Amino acid sequence: MSNRIFFAAGALVLVFAPAVSAQWIDVYATRQTVSASPAGPLLMNESCLPELADRPLSLQDVLQQAICANPQTKQAWANARAQAAAVGVSEAAYLPTLDATVGVERDTLATRYNANSLGAGSITSSQNSSSRYGELDFGWVLFDFGKRSADLRQARQLLAAANAAQDDTLQAVYFKAAQAYYNLSDAQASLEAARATESSARESLDDTTEKHNGGVGSLSDQLQAETIYRRAVLDRVSAEGDVLAATGTLASMMGLDADTSVRVVTAEPVVDNAAFAQNVDQLIDEAKLQHPKLVAARAQLEAARANVDAVRAEGRPTISLVGNLSQNNPSYQQQPEQFPVTGSRGSTIGIQLKIPLFEGLASGYRVEQAEQQVDAQEADLRNTELQVSLDVWKSYQGLLTDTASLGISQDLLDAAQRSLEVARGRYKEGVGAFTELLNAQAALTDARKQRVLAVSKWRTSRLRLALSLGNLGFWSP
């Protein structure tokens, strides 16, 4: 009975051990070291939208949908979870291992004897044997000169790098989604400006036509007004196409088909002068502390340093506690009186010292390789620091310039509108030349374009500065 229990237990271990380990609880709590969802680090207290209502979408609506639906965020999250599992593997190296082996064998041996000299011809005999065996092997590394601790440090630093990479991916998706939102808003503003220009050109055409029909205006003025009107129509049609293209781009960024109808809320920009209270040097220092790219680069450097310790420890001895329990139950047929059924059972336990003596001088090259990787990571960290500081500097100066341009563009638009009103009034009264009206109309068209461009550049500059600081999120202005 004990033999059957032994083999049944061994079979259960072999069959169910992989399934149990695959569904085992997270004993090392590695899942808590990564976000609970792909968009978790950026959404904070927000949640993914279950569906988009049929209404104009705000910037926050667009950002939530894009972050939740973009496959890049899911890929970065999966990489972080995989690295968290690698930390669990490194933690498990501190525990003992237990392996079970069970088997059933059947052997057949046939022997033929030549007995012609005895007049018996040939004689054939056969022997069948079967054997059931089982073995349990136990191992526990007690001391390894720091290899496991170095592997664990490396895994944890790589996890920190993966989490930072996820944060950087989320911010990149945030930036692209916000940019697509503003591009659609700018395209709609350009369309409104084109329609206003078309309406103004139509009004000028009506004025010249009325004067020409009344005999007080020239045909040349009417034809020029008609040319300008047709150009305004062409610009409006082109602006409508830009709106459709921008709508498709935004829908795709939100994980929707490009032909999905998307409407966004448009609003005039509000400049907050308090946003420039910080000195650019302070912003650069802030970026060096929190930017995801720098966090990832520092973690990669620490992981490379831990790898050096792990590689060096590979060439040192290890001390392990080992044990073995085995049982073999053979049985024989045909000649049981000569080969009775026997069984064997054995067990061992002891301390094992493993000393690497020679492996073709490869250990020195592995250490050199690991040390050079540290140097490469140090250079990469410094390069990332320089790039982050440059991005902050350029983004900050660009935002200052674009903020000043934003106010000037509004003044330009107001002046151009007044100029056109005066020129049209003078032309209707017959005291102003048609060329004066055309110049005022062209100046207003240009002022409208400059206003749309200034708003677009200002919005992008704000986003780019927040991105260079590594501080994009729903808390960003």
List strands and helices in order, with pairings.
Layout: H1 2-22, H2 40-43, H3 59-69, H4 71-92, E1 97-115, E2 121-143, H5 147-213, H6 219-253, H7 280-290, H8 292-314, E3 318-332, E4 344-354, H9 362-429, H10 434-469
Antiparallel strand pairs: 1-2, 2-3, 3-4
Describe this structure in words.
This protein is an alpha+beta fold. It has a single domain (34-95, 145-316, 361-469), classed as Up-down Bundle (Outer membrane efflux proteins (OEP)), CATH 1.20.1600.10. The chain has helices at 2-22, 40-43, 59-69, 71-92, 147-213, 219-253, 280-290, 292-314, 362-429, 434-469; strands at residues 97-115, 121-143, 318-332, 344-354. The protein has a 4-stranded antiparallel β-sheet with strand order 1-2-3-4, with helices on one face. The longest helix is centred in the C-terminal third of the chain and has 68 residues, at 362-429. The chain starts with a helix and ends in an 8-residue tail after the last helix. Mean pLDDT is 83; it is low at 1-17.
